[in-house]
Write a structure and sequence with these properties.
Layout: H1 2-17, H2 19-40, H3 55-76, H4 79-86, H5 92-119, H6 123-138, H7 140-145, H8 151-158, H9 166-169, H10 175-201
């Protein structure tokens, strides 16, 4: 656990010192702003490893560092739903459920990014793979829309957004959606760990 915390602290500090971290913060705040007002109106590449650190500790430490940044950025956007709440357009429960959906989606996206990072030695290649995986998982609902049941329901259920995020946007907390995001996050973190292990022994 100590190694996980050390990696978390090192990676978090790296994000805070990097201009990219602030660029991501601006992008997330913009997306959060659009998301809340719309509802009111109706990235293991580049990791330096030391031998005592196990693969799962490296993956978990990097995941926690990125998730901490996303969590902090999301908190910075709290003034947006607060303004809406003052005007009586949305309830506190609605806001909290919406934020839970954003954070769960963020956790899954981070895990996918770490898996992509483990697959490629180059950050550019990792970014391309990660973008392709995310786009595929987000856009599965489009493929589902042109298929027949039960394949349609299966593909729609796999999509990272749309059907899974809509209840959160409406302020409805459904256990199956929470479990879905947790399973996706766990699966890709495990896949990233196993990929690093395979590369190390290759």
């Amino acid at each position: 656990m100590r190694n996980v915390l050390l990696i978390w602290r090192r990676e978090l500090w790296a994000y805070l010192r990097s201009p990219l971290g602030y660029a991501v913060a601006c992008a997330v705040l913009l997306i959060d702003g659009i998301w809340f007002y719309a509802r009111a109106l109706g990235p293991a590449a580049g990791a330096r490893r030391t031998s005592p650190v196990r693969d799962r500790e490296l993956v978990l430490g990097k995941f926690l560092s990125v998730f901490t940044v996303i969590f902090a950025i999301t908190l910075l956007s709290a003034y947006i739903p607060a303004l809406i709440f003052v005007n009586g357009r949305v309830s506190v429960g609605h806001i909290l459920v919406g934020y839970a959906g954003v954070l769960l989606l963020g956790a899954a996206a981070i895990a996918i990014g770490l898996f992509s990072s483990a697959l490629a030695k180059s950050q550019v290649v990792a970014a391309i793979i990660g973008a392709a995986l995310l786009a595929t998982m987000v856009l599965l609902w489009l493929l589902a829309s042109v298929t027949e049941a039960p394949i349609r329901d299966f593909l729609a259920g796999l999509a990272l957004h749309h059907q899974r995020q809509r209840p959160f946007m409406l302020g409805v907390l459904r256990l199956e959606n929470v479990v879905y995001y947790l399973v996706v996050t766990w699966f890709f973190l495990l896949a990233a760990t196993k990929t690093l292990e395979a590369r190390r022994w290759r």
